[in-house]
Write a structure and sequence with these properties.
With 196 residues, the protein is α/β, with parallel strands linked by helices. The protein has a single domain, classed as Rossmann fold, CATH 3.40.50.1240. It is 42% helix and 14% strand.
């Protein structure tokens, strides 16, 4: 699941590793998402979260409703956007035009502090495999993370090339559903699910 919306999201600012908390509308969205998740999957949930506030606040709303406590896992945190953090995409395009173009062609930009796609995908996938293996057979594991981290981790599990928007945009407060079966392995069964 992608965390609820922050003020930075509304302004179109890149957050990356910045620890931006949810505002009032984000907290409200997190509560609505929690209700939708428990209605869809029942209260038997294992809730794992990125330690960044926007994710952990979303996860805490889900965990409270499920009667459990969210487990923080650094591996599902957002990639660093390096020197672009805090900037809008318009500012990035104006100040780093070549690297902006490189990013939108599917490559990691060569900027200070950028979290490489292969490393991010590997750590998120590792966390998903471990956390799902550690839960009970009947438990649904809800991992609250971030747009790029989710896309890269899921793509890694499915054996897809790690490029931007490979799976399409994932709205705030929406989730993907993956299942693991003995015969097929990982399957993406639903994408961009909302509580609507």
């Amino acid at each position: 699941m992608r965390h609820a919306r922050t003020g930075f999201n509304t302004e179109g600012r890149l957050q990356g590793s910045l620890d931006v908390p949810l505002g009032a509308d984000g907290l409200e969205q997190a509560e609505l998402v929690a209700v939708a998740l428990v209605a869809a999957y029942g209260p038997r949930l294992t809730v794992v979260t990125s330690p960044l506030a926007r994710a952990s606040q979303t996860a805490d709303a889900i965990a409270r409703l499920a009667g459990t406590v969210a487990i923080a896992d650094e591996r599902v945190t957002q990639r660093s956007y390096g020197v672009w953090e805090g900037h809008t995409w318009t500012e990035v395009r104006e100040q780093w035009p070549a690297e902006y173009a490189r990013r939108h062609e599917g490559y990691d930009p060569e900027i200070t502090g950028w979290g490489a796609s292969d490393a991010v995908g590997a750590r998120v996938a590792e966390a998903l495999v471990e956390r799902c293996g550690a839960s009970g057979d009947d438990d649904v594991v809800v991992v609250v993370s971030h747009g790029s981290a989710i896309m890269l981790g899921v793509a890694q599990l499915l054996g897809l090339q790690l490029v931007p928007s490979r799976l399409g945009h994932l709205d705030h407060g929406s989730w993907n559903e993956l299942t693991l079966t003995e015969n097929v392995g990982w399957r993406l069964t639903r994408y961009g699910v909302t509580g609507d």
